[in-house]
Amino acid sequence: MSMLVFLEHHGDELLKGSLGVLSKAVALGSADVAGVVMGFGVRPLAEQAAKCGAVKVYVADDARLEAPLPQPRVDVLARLIREKGIETVLFGNSVLAADVAAGLAARLEAGLNWDLADLVRQDDRFVGKRPALQDSVHVDVGWKSEPRIALFRSGSFDPVETGGSADTEDVTVALEDFSTSARMVDQAHEEGEGPSIEDAAVIVAGGRGLGGPENFTLVEELAKALGGAVGATRAVVDAGWYPYSTQVGQTGKTVSPKLYIACGISGAIQHKVGMQSSGVIVAINKDPNAPIFEFSDLGVVGDVHEVVPKLTELVKARKGS
Amino acid sequence: MTKPADFPPPFRAADYVAAPSDPPDERIEVGILIVGAGPAGLACAIRLGQLLEDAPEIRDRLGEVPVAVLEKGKQAGSHLLSGAVVNPRALRRLFKGRKRIDEMPFYGPVENESVYFLTKQNALRIPAPPTMKNDGNYVASLSRLGRWLAEQAEEAGAMLLPETAAEKLLVSDGRARGVRTGDKGRGRDGEPLANFEPGSDLVAKVTVLAEGTQGHLTGVALDRFGLAGESPQVWALGVKEVWKIKRPLDRVIHTMGWPLRPGAKYREFGGSFIYPLGEDMLTLGMVVGLDYRDVELSVHDLLQELKTHPLVRGLLDGGERVEWGAKTIPEGGFLALPKQLHAPGLLICGDGAGLVNVPALKGIHYAIESGSLAAEAAFAALQRGQTPATPGALSVYDEALKRSFVWKDLYEVRNMRPAFGRGFWLGGALAGAMTATKGRFPRRDLELERDVDVELIRTDRAMDFPAPDGKLTFDKLSSVFASGNKTRDDQPNHIVIRRDVPQDIAQLWERLCPAQVYEATEKGVDVTPSNCVQCGAITAKGGRLTPPEGGSGPEYTLT
Questions:
Q1: Out of 1.10.3720.10, 3.40.50.300, 3.30.870.10, 3.40.50.1220, which CATH number does the structure's domain A202-320 have?
Q2: Which residue among A70, A304, B472, B523 has the highest number of C-beta atoms inside a 10 angstrom radius?
Q3: A184 touches chain B (CB under 8 A)
Q4: Which residues in chain A are contacts of B482 at CB distance < 8 A?
């Protein structure tokens, strides 16, 4: 059963999300899991995929693939899938991946199951798990035909480095006329200190319990001491205390760091769904009845203005020693 | 104490009327434009499809898109919410010879029904008032029925345009020309974002407003064309939940009394409904007239309190809430109808027109019937070779509606709702006399008072509302989540209200809103528009809801 994983990169690194999906594919026990990297000057990236267990990496290295546009990638993938008779194609969600997956499904008239949280093999079939009814249940979804295309929710799987090497194979890049009519005008990166909120291993997030925008420095300092990123709740973003790009929750970002420290956050469900898959959740809140304590691993009932600075000091002291 | 009317919203209907402004070659031209994919709008689209099927020459005259239906929700049904027990009369007529009732997505006929008068601990079974008998009616989820009707409409050749809000009414030379759709991709201060997409002029030979309760352009059109009736419209707010349950419910239940207070000074008119949705689900809701007075009243919390009653708790035992939603209901009935439901190039149907029978708890079949009649009127005008925008060309719609069962039903019960402004007991007695005389009593019609004109009082009612436990009782935010609402947070605010209001008004709004949009602060009121489920309660009680970006708001599936 041949599987292909779409590997997306930023700069010199494959995305953690893509590698996580690759690790998942390997864990499903397929003998020949392949990855595909597309872009310009991307050949060296194949090695990173090999580390996560790909036995083969297809490389489409072409100047026309430099911009992160979906249509040229659909052209390359469609041809590759037809030529190699690939049966299953997996994507980790991103703006680009969602576009490519949808375009590919249309091009190949293939079935696409999106927003999957997991994929399992039952007998000889693949069954996708899709959260539904506000994530309260998982719906089993399948495919009626091949190739099967799956788009996973971001942060569903962590990459697992197994070591190893992979064959690389260059892929012909032949583009359709209609695929070259869009061009990228500009690409902008938001400048921020420290790791971005999606990739951070540690997130320190602040809520309304901080009392005011000036108290976000408490959160920032703790995040800095831990080498983590700063997150915020909708209430404080709404109030203009902190930028929207840091908002965690239903209408913000979904994150799954190893450690999530919630400072002065009550834990409304809209926030919970954005961070509930974090490794360890620590909550600091002075209200012992706050819902956040129901799903945190460690709860501190206390005033964030006192607890957080002390915690920062302790972390600094520990790191300094 | 004060009243909401003292703090009117800075809203001018005239700001939402415009002449077509896109260059002629950029306008989107359709034949008949229907605003709102609810039972009225979709019935209109289906009926038009049927009529045009046999009249290809008229269909050709209507252009490439003979019939289009605009819907502000994510899809048809996303913003539909009702009890609902449906009288199938209008559906039978609409689908005569095409679809049988058993092909429609109902959860079965009403086989048993009980009406209870509740006190805090007890439930007294009382005979069903004659207006409330449901023999021959069917239980439905209106959201689901709406999705099915949308499929039928598409099969009948209509084009559905979901995620598209109708923001302005296009008028030139005193005639309705269509609508302008809302912009998409604007930021909080109205600035265009990267994905900005301006609205467009959708021009049509006939514009059918089927927007449902608190219709935005319906309100604008009543003002622009001077169609408002003598009596003001009044509303109720309904909040409901859908539960997965362990043991099937074998009947429909209505309750009166607790948790509402019977005293005339409170003016708390309403009740609850509990309907089975198949074997493994039920839906329950609380409906309260928005002429209530107490600043501390919250319909959402009354529903939570209702669930703690032994009768209700027993039905939900071991179950799980799967959906939540809220919507207003126009309750003024016959007395509050606009004096005319057409204007040059324009027709108004369904809940937007106020075609609701409060004592019978019914309106869906009137919506469907009025939508069908609107289709027939538009078609008749086209058949006569008339330009439907000619003044009077659509007057057959009003005439047909007056000859229909809709009018007769509404006339008979016209005085019941205002009677209940006098408290539950006196209101009930008066309603009984009205039923017995088929509406000949009282000789002189009662008067309706605008919901915003009711003087407020304050009790400590909120102290009794149960604390949410996340299993049986829920707070407002987790309820908004259960409505499927995931509206983008950085949209412009679509709710027009005064911010610098006194505490009484701010707290009224905070309690009133089932979706936690308003928060009383020291300076007045703060607004979180992305929580909004577009129920319309704020319009009844001193603000003005306008449509947010298309695709926003709840995504109901079972309500």
A1: 3.40.50.1220
A2: A304
A3: no
A4: 134
Backbone phi and psi for residue A154, each to the nearest 5 degrees, phi listed first: -65, 145
Chain segment B347-368, per-residue pLDDT in tens: 999 999 999 999 999 999 999 9
- pLDDT of residue A49 exceeding 80: yes
Closest CA to B15 of B349, B496, B351, B548: B496
Whether the CB-CB separation of B162 and B37 falls below 8 Å is answered with yes
Q: Which residues pair with B86 in a beta bridge?
A: B138
Q: Tell me: pLDDT of B535 over 90.
A: yes
Decide which of 3.30.565.10, 3.40.50.300, 3.50.50.60, 3.30.70.260 is the CATH code for B10-99+144-232+335-412. 3.50.50.60
Q: Which residues of B touch A134 (CB under 8 A)?
A: 481-482, 484
CB contact under 8 A, B489 and A234: yes
Contact A238 B528 (CB under 8 A): yes
CB contact under 8 A, A270 and B487: no
Residue B165 distance to chain A (closest CA, Å): 21
Nearest CB among B470, B484, B489 relative to A238 is that of B489
- List the one residue out of A248, A222, A249 whose CA is nearest residue A305: A222
| CB-defined contacts A:B, below 8 A | 35
Would you tell me which CATH number, out of the four given (3.40.50.620, 3.40.50.300, 3.40.190.10, 3.30.70.2210), belongs to the domain A3-180? 3.40.50.620
Environment class of residue B132 by beta-carbon count within 10 Å: exposed (0-12), middle (13-18) or buried (19+)? middle
Please give the average per-residue pLDDT across B260-288, as a whole number.
Answer: 95
CA distance B348 to A241: 45
Question: B-side interface with A, Cβ within 8 Å?
Answer: 320, 322-323, 470, 477-478, 480-482, 484, 486-490, 528, 530
Mean pLDDT of B23-44: 94
The span from the CA of B484 to the CA of B476, in Å, is: 13
Pairwise CA distance, residues A43 & A49, whole Å: 11
DSSP H helices in chain A: 16-27, 46-51, 70-84, 95-108, 216-226, 234-238, 269-275, 304-320
Tens of pLDDT, residue by residue over B457-497, are 999 999 999 999 999 999 999 999 999 998 988 899 999 99
Task: Nearest chain A residue to B517 by CA: give it.
Answer: A235
